[in-house]
Design brief:
The chain has 342 residues and is α+β, with helices and mostly antiparallel strands. The protein has helices at residues 2-19, 25-56, 67-75, 96-108, 123-132, 137-155, 208-223, 227-231, 262-270, 298-312; strands spanning 60-62, 80-85, 112-118, 164-169, 175-180, 183-188, 200-204, 225-226, 233-238, 244-248, 250-253, 256-259, 277-281, 285-292, 320-324. The chain crosses the membrane at residues 29-51.
């Protein structure tokens, strides 16, 4: 490019030198340069923006979601990276390490990375599983969330974690979005196959379609639940002993919450002479009595083992049930403020 410019400059100077023999040389030079300058101004300030606006509305179609291609765009992002999907093979496959490396590079440039995945326990997830004919959909989402949680909490440097945000949403999925800066790949959820297997529309965020999808993302994001809340539940144990606060891993089975935490087992052992009542926060303030799960209940114990393995990738064999206290006709787990009946 530089050699081409130098060559053109040399030819221009040669032509100007030859033209010096012509009459009215200064006037001709002034007229031609003035016309060229006006043309340049019109091109830069009028035609250029019109072309750019036309490009903004242009849609480029990709036959499928090319994960390596997208990762390369993430690696160069400087402002924002957004992913909206049911679950994504980007987060559970050979491209995952490169994606996390690219995301970290973007974060170091002060970009924001936001990931929205479908809540695996929501009715919308069950509906999408039925559409796909995929009984493993819930497990796939859980794997994605576990990988994201581990990357954010253990791999990513602490100073960068604030910019790496993950939420789960419960709305019926309708679109998938893979954004980098002012560009995005958009697709719609087809029946019987994953969004990444269908056509991807590459658009600018300022285009009508780009604006619509970005607004949809913002609405879902605002209603979503943070991954910290999804993976950990705050519990405050009260009673005769000093009040103690914990954050515990938990799962839900048949409307009841269960935890598997050696600290809580030890706490119950210390308070064995009294019922152990805990205030917990899982969507709303809750009140429950901690009760050990009978390990002779093979069906329940097996279900809990599977759920904890699925969600956290860890094996547990001792579980605690958060048994509702209060009015038995109320919610499965009573709200704080209800009277505790003995």
């Amino acid at each position: 490019m530089l050699l081409t410019l130098l060559g053109l400059l040399g030819v221009s100077l040669l032509l100007l030198s030859l033209a010096r023999r012509l009459s009215d040389y200064p006037e001709n030079i002034a007229i031609n340069l003035g016309a060229d300058l006006i043309g340049a101004i019109v091109t830069i300030f009028v035609i250029g923006p019109l072309i750019n606006r036309a490009d903004d509305g242009r849609v480029r179609e990709h036959p499928r979601l090319d994960y390596p291609w997208y990762v390369d765009r993430v690696a160069g992002a400087t402002s924002v990276v957004r992913v909206l999907d049911t679950f994504s093979n980007l987060l559970d496959g050979p491209h995952t390490p490169r994606f996390f490396e690219a995301a970290e590079r973007a974060l170091r440039r002060e970009a924001i990375v936001q990931v929205l995945l479908l809540d695996p326990d929501s009715p919308a997830a069950a509906q999408r599983a039925q559409e796909l004919g995929d009984a493993e959909l819930r497990r796939e989402i859980m794997r994605n969330l576990r990988v994201l949680w581990e990357f954010r909490s253990t791999v990513l440097p602490e100073r960068l974690r604030r910019g790496f945000e993950v939420r789960v949403y419960s709305a019926s999925p309708s679109i998938a979005l893979y954004r980098w800066d002012d560009k995005a790949l958009v697709s719609f959820f087809p029946l019987g196959r994953l969004s990444g297997q269908g056509a991807q529309l590459e658009v600018t965020v300022s285009s009508p379609l780009g604006e619509f999808v970005n607004e949809r993302f913002n609405a879902i994001w605002a209603a979503g639940r943070d991954i910290d809340e999804f993976m950990l539940m705050p519990i405050t144990v009260r009673g005769a002993q000093p009040v103690r606060d914990f954050e515990v891993e938990y799962v839900e089975v048949d409307g009841l919450l269960y935890i598997a935490d050696s600290r809580m087992v030890a706490e119950m052992a210390r308070r064995r002479a009294e019922p152990v009542i805990a205030h917990c926060q899982q969507g709303r303030p809750l009140l429950a009595e901690l009760m050990m799960v009978d390990d002779r209940d093979a069906k329940l114990t097996g279900a809990l083992m599977d759920r904890f393995q699925e969600k956290y990738g860890q094996h547990h064999d001792v579980f605690i049930c958060l048994q509702p206290v209060g009015d038995g006709a109320g919610p499965r787990v009573a709200e704080i403020g209800e009277s505790v009946e003995r």
